Batch of 2 targets.
Target 1
Amino acid sequence: MDPYDFTIPAGTVFRIPEIRTSLPDACHPRCTELDEHAHAFARPYLVGYFGDEDRADRFLAQGHAHYACLGYPRALDDRAQAVANSILPATLLDDTFSKPGLQGDLTALRSHHAQWSAVFAGERPPREADPAYHFVYDSIQACQPYATPGVARRLRDGWQDAADAFLDEAVHRHHSDTADLDTYADRRVRVHFRLWACALLEFSLGIDLGPLADHPLIRSAQHHVIWNLALANDCYSLVKELSAHEATNTIIELMRHEGLDLQTAVDKVADLLHRTEQDYLRVRDETRTAFADNTDVAAYMDGLGYFITANLRIMQSSSRYHGLDHDGSQVLPGPVTITPMPTVHTPREQFRH
């Protein structure tokens, strides 16, 4: 049987278990200003990309720009807006790979990927190019004046790695590939912008780890944190991904590869999520000991922890995962009914009534 040829019927109910963290929340002191300016920066590109104001405003209403304030709360004032302006371009890059007309068409996706690669190499997109390319290009350029050459390179490499990972996922799906959990985790952290998000942390703090950016302890901490983000995403985004015919969700992968039922897969993902936080804390403490005199490493390792709390708050509150009518309140543990929902690309006239 084709492992991708299955569906979870509408009306199926599963329970989101309690998702907890021991890590502290934080928020950038200029958060309201940063959010407002990030939306003002993004909106013209989004209107151009979607073709109408309604879908652009629905995209903004998801609240993802706020991740910058929660996930990079110690961003230096001189580059805090550049950090905030980078989050929505990354979110949109993700969505472009599931855009109707591209999704499932490997030839079109490879061409799309090639155009992204040109952007990440520093080529300004032609005037007539998709506004998504201009959005990302301009956000990259806005970081340049504040980035050291090493951090600028890691940011560009991170963008490229994420785009490569999105294309790889499309190829895996085309060939109906499944993977053991460790292999799948290595793939998922790339899809979840590991290299880019972690380079953006260096950038936000005004540090350059240099060769230490590739140190095994730091790489291990990054992996545990970004894997935690992916797993939290999967607990709350299942309905959204089923609605968008997306395949990248650990719950779905466990059902395919291990033959688990839906609730068992959900519970296993929640357990894995809590274990990854403990893994991060263990590696963080090892790193603090190994680099006891390095204040940049200490700040960086603490900064990774804010990714976990920021991501969880966004996952629990965003209309991206809980429907257009969601009021932004925290979704608590409890039952969820699989109900198809509009995607960011769905025109309002195609909503089901």
Target 2
Amino acid sequence: MGTVLLSLSMGLVSGCFGSPEPQAEHVPRSDLVGEWHAGGMCDSSVRLGEDGSAGVSRWPTAVNDKGHIAQRKNSTGTWMLDTFQGKQELEVKLGKTFETVLLRQSDGRLMLLQIPGDDPDNSIGCRFMRVHEPS
């Protein structure tokens, strides 16, 4: 039940949260494989494997009422590229929870946008940029 609620709430996030970066379109799965990092207060990393495996380090999972990261997790799981209401999204599954990560363009580069927590109006956007491509 919690997984369903989290998936529904994250689906709503993707439609409600305003981001200044434009939606990335027609992203091939191979463009997502590699190491990604979000700097600043997010200070988090995600590794997306060619085989669909995912690993996260310091992944924000909750935000307090002041918009600061309150909880983080280190975990492994899986990922897949999906389409929801005509827009591509990255779905990361860690344990029993699914999290939607939005695909954006920033300065001509692909960016992953994670919105931690349950309330997109009281959250931050963690902007992940690729740091390593697979060899």
